[in-house]
Design a protein that fits this description.
The protein is α/β, with parallel strands linked by helices. α2 crosses α3 and α4 packs parallel to α5. The structure holds ligand C2E and calcium ion (2 copies).
Length: 294
């Protein structure tokens, strides 16, 4: 009951119910199975394209963790990540994703492509995060400029001074830092001035209503304006329709990500551009155009 109250945003109370025992049991079971999956290569990483709106070109891929349970089937990261965070397993899991993403990105034929990796606040607790990142870069041979880490605002609320220190060190390594899910948390402007960000990702909940609701359009325009003034890039997530991309382009958004441009999937190292909806290099585009006209 205590944990339920804490997760419910504190300052609340929860009566104990027997169903909580069952939930706790279920979480324990998943935890044990995650430990096994980590040992037996049961996790994998898929990649979702991020496309530049100005030139319609593929810029990066976001690494997303996947777990297919031998009996239960696919389990969403929205279910297992919070359990991993509570139990401390996120450290090992995070390290797995980081290493895999760096190694995979280093194998892509197009070396201009970046890779973005999600980090949980719990991964910042040990103070070893900078070390983990530099190890992963060194082992994979990936240039630091090709790695981006995605963090959420909740990280900034927890322990400001040590987190700022870590983020600055990570930034100084040449790795870029993106603020994920922007607009869903406190969105405190004072955070933005204190932390070394390179990018803001506007949450999917805003993009969903873009072009349908004047308030949402105004908020999205304001966030894009904020990005301009702070000299950081703006990414819109959850773009599912052409119309949304058009509105975002007109509004001056830099990068888009969503099912419209590509679902999270495997990347062919020899041809990372395959299956991504964006303009090809000018050479290929001319060839296709010529074939079409001819
Ligand atoms: P996120 O970082 O906001 O990731 C984007 C989520 O939105 C992904 O869900 C992605 O599949 C989904 N998505 C992308 N485009 C669209 C779209 O056009 N429409 C809709 N409806 N959804 C879209 P996924 O992969 O299930 O991941 C959910 C969350 O789990 C992530 O949200 C992230 O918070 C967390 N997560 C995933 N992988 C990792 C990881 O390696 N480490 C950590 N710490 N968290 C992770
Ligand atoms: Ca993310
Ligand atoms: Ca997000």
């Amino acid at each position: 009951a205590l944990y339920r109250s804490k997760n419910g945003g504190r300052s609340t109370y929860t009566w104990y119910e027997s169903s909580m025992d069952e939930e706790l049991e279920r979480r324990r079971e998943l935890e044990t199975e995650m430990i096994r999956a980590l040992k037996l290569d049961g996790f994998s990483v898929v990649y979702q394209a991020q496309v530049g709106l100005a030139d319609n070109k593929l810029k990066a891929f976001e690494a997303l963790l996947r777990w297919v349970h031998p009996e239960k089937g696919r389990i969403s990261p929205e279910v297992f990540i919070p359990i991993a965070e509570d139990t401390g397993l996120i450290e090992a899991l995070g390290e797995y994703v980081l290493k895999k993403a760096c190694t995979d990105a280093a194998s892509w034929a197009d070396t201009s492509l970046k890779v973005a990796v999600n980090f949980s606040p719990a991964q910042f607790k040990t103070g070893l995060i900078e070390q983990k990142i530099s190890e992963a870069l060194e082992e994979s041979g990936l240039a630091p400029e090709r790695l981006e880490i995605e963090i959420t605002e909740s990280l900034l609320i927890a322990d400001t001074t040590s987190v700022v220190k870590s983020l600055k060190k990570i930034g100084n390594m040449g790795v870029s830092i993106a603020m994920d899910d922007f607009g869903t948390g406190y969105s405190s402007l004072s955070y933005l001035s204190r932390f070394p960000f390179n990018k803001i990702k506007i949450d999917r909940s805003f993009i969903m209503n873009i072009g349908k609701d004047a308030h949402t359009d105004a908020i999205v325009a304001a966030i894009i304006g904020l990005g301009r003034s702070l000299d950081v890039l703006i990414t819109a997530e959850g773009v599912e329709e052409e119309m949304q991309a058009q509105i975002l382009r007109a509004g001056g958004c830099d990068i888009v990500q969503g099912y419209y441009f590509g679902k999270p999937s495997n990347v062919d190292p020899a041809n990372p551009h395959a299956n991504v909806r964006c303009t090809l290099g000018t050479q290929e585009a001319k060839q296709i155009e010529a074939a079409y006209v001819g």
